[in-house]
Amino acid sequence: MGNTWWTTMPWGWMMVGWLFMLLFWGGVIALVVWVVLRLTRRKEREAEPTPLDVLKMRYARGEITKAEFDQRKADLQ
To answer: In three state form, how does the secondary structure of the chain look?
Structure first.
């Protein structure tokens, strides 16, 4: 019988194939980690109240009057 393709394939090409497979999966894993970190950081930034939110909370708690609220809101804009 004749030789089959896997018995005539040089070992060097097999190592190149393994190297490309490791690079591919390493890239996929790195991309997933990057996306997860980016999304979690965005949520942390969105969770911080803006100065206007803080002003609204202070007005709602009665810490400042309507006139003070309107003045400070105008100052922020």
So the answer is: CCCCHHHHCCHHHHHHHHHHHHHHHHHHHHHHHHHHHHHHHHHHHHHCCCHHHHHHHHHHCCCCCHHHHHHHHHHHC
